[in-house]
Every structure is written in C-alpha cells, then in structure tokens.
Amino acid sequence: MDAIILQILNGLDKGSAYAMIALGLTLIFGTLGVVNFAHGALFMLGAFCAVTLQRLLSLSYTVEDPTQKDFLGNPLKVDTPYIVSWFGDSAGNAILNWSVPLAILFAIPVMLLIGYVMERGLIKHFYKRPHADQILVTFGLAIVIQEIVKYFYGANPIPTPAPDVFRGSVDFGVMIGFAPNEIIYPYWRLVYFFFSAAIIGAVFAFLRFTTFGMVVRAGMADRETVGLLGINIDKRFTIMFGIAAAVAGLAGVMYAPINSPNYHMGMDFLVLSFVVVVVGGMGSLPGAVLAGFLLGVLESFASMNEIKSVLPGIDQIIIYLVAIIILLTRPRGLMGRRGVMEE
C-alpha cells in the first residue's frame, strides 16, 4: 500500500506539470483556435525567470574581510551580494534563499508581456490559416526561443535550489496514519502539487465567476454572436493568451528546483502535454486537467521496477499507448466537444 501511495504522489507531481501546460494550451486553442507548439517554450522561459532572478539577486562586489586572513596574513577578499549590503545579513540572505518563490512575482509580468508580444506580433497572422501552418510556425518559434536561451545561459542545466525550509523530505506516511519512515516524500514536490492545484483552481474560478471570464467562455462557444453585441472579443482573447503564457511560466518557475532548468526542457514537456490535450479533448479545459493528472499517475506506475521487469520500456510509451486506446474508443478524447478540429 505504501508503494502505491508513493507512486500516486509521484504521478500527481508529474501530472501537475502536464495539467498546467495543457491548461494553457487548451486556453489558447479554445479562445483563438491556434495550435500553439511554442507553449513548451513558455514553460521553459518561466523556469529561466527563476534562474534570472536568482542571478540578479546574487550580483555581488568584492571587499576585504579583516576577520579572515590568507596564509600570508593578508585580509581575504570576499564577495558580498548587493542585496545583503542593502538589507542586512538576515533579510538579504532570506531574500536570496527565497529567490524561487519570489520569482513568481517576477515571472507574472514578464510572461504576460511575452504572451502579448507573441500573439500580437506573430500568432494573430495565423488565425485563419490551416492548423498545419500554425503548428509549423509555432514549432519554429519554439526552436528560435530555445536557441536564444541556449546562447545566453549555456547548454548545461542550472541548479536552482528551493528555500532551505522546503529542502529534504517529509514523512508523509505518518500524516495519513502509516508507521514512521514508510512513505518519505520531498517537501518541494508537495509544494508544487498544491501550488499547481491553486493556479488551476484560480483559472477556473476566473473563467466562471468573473464577468471577463464569462464573456471569454461565451466567445469560445460563439465568437460571432459575442462580437455582434459590441464586445471587443479579440482584445479579451489576446489577454487570455497572455494569461495562458503566465500559467505556463508559473509552472516552469516552481518546477525549477525539481528539474534544473535547461534549454530543451520545454520540448521535453511539449509533446507529452499536447498528447494530454488530445486525450482530454481539444478545447476542453476540464479534460486537459483530468488527462494531465491521469496520465501522470499512469506514467508513475509504469516506472515501477516490478512493472518494467515484466514490460521493459513501458514507462517510455505508456502515455502514447493510453492515448491510442482512448482515441480509438473516444475519438474526441475524454471530454472533447463536437466540431472541434473536425472540419
């Protein structure tokens, strides 16, 4: 039982990333009708927002420390971060330690701006073009973004640690009634799951309970009728593109301590997340979230040694096998709508 619970936790962790990226993909497709293959790059840019803020906060200058001597008796030169000299040792080091959570505040405006520029500068010219054209141009954009990041940050993964209080593991088993040391799980992965659940819940609440969200949902169902009511639905859809970019960016920010950011991490998640969207149903927001967590859990169970010993390599193909089975039995996906990508 403890092994099953551990694999469910691992699956929810992976599923959180899949669900957040797939949610953004579905928001863009549902509002603009665009198949955005650059969405994985937005996830990657979010992770590098965390890296960038960490580097900015770590900028330092060199001073002589008379309390430390080298072997010749000369004062040692030490690097002192500007943030520490400005706010003092306690507050400055706390800010450095919490750079990843603080990167959320940094990433939101950055990703909103990137999403706005991407939509206004490129995507809007492909609204009425075939989906194949949209896939090609956004996939090309993803490669360009990837190479730019590689040029400025290098090809190697960049460690981006979580705050000290969330490093290490928690005895999760004790929390749910098991004996001590039976289910040990990393703190930050639990934080990532609850953070993802909060963001997903906030997006659904925004779409359901705000006037802006209701208009957007109406526009997703019948764009022409909403336009005839005198509402500038295109402007609202542009804002939704920015929100989708911000959701992907936040997913990347909080994932940075789990998987050190590298220039190709967006591509690693993109294909899997697009499979999640198709399985959930093109244009279905609940379907994208449901499929994200479902496929994350299945992938986690398929990675168990007991299963791999019977079916070698099953962990690499389980998502695609499930996708084939679901699409053969339910061609529109789990919660797909009639008429979406069926023309």
Describe this structure in words.
This protein is mainly α and 343 residues long. The protein has one domain: ABC transporter involved in vitamin B12 uptake, BtuC, CATH 1.10.3470. The chain is built from 14 helices and four strands. It has helices at residues 2-32, 39-57, 82-97, 99-121, 131-153, 172-175, 187-209, 211-221, 223-228, 233-255, 265-280, 285-302, 305-310, 314-329, and strands spanning 60-69, 75-81, 169-171, 184-186. The strands form two sheets. A two-stranded antiparallel sheet has the order 1-2. Strands 3-4 form a two-stranded antiparallel sheet. Strand 1 and strand 2 (75-81) form a beta hairpin. Helix 7 runs antiparallel to helix 10 (233-255). It is globular, with a radius of gyration of 23 Å.
| N-C termini distance | 47 Å
Count of DSSP-assigned helices? 14
H/E element sequence: HHEEHHHEHEHHHHHHHH
Estimated radius of gyration: 23 Å
For the biggest β-sheet, the strand order reads 1-2
Mean pLDDT: 85
Spatial shape? globular
Biggest sheet details: 2 strands, antiparallel
CATH class: Mainly Alpha
What percent strand? Answer: 5-15%
Structural class by helix and strand composition: mainly alpha
Can you tell me the CATH architecture? Orthogonal Bundle
Pfam families: BPD_transp_2
Protein name: ABC transporter permease
Subcellular location: Cell membrane
Organism: Hoeflea olei
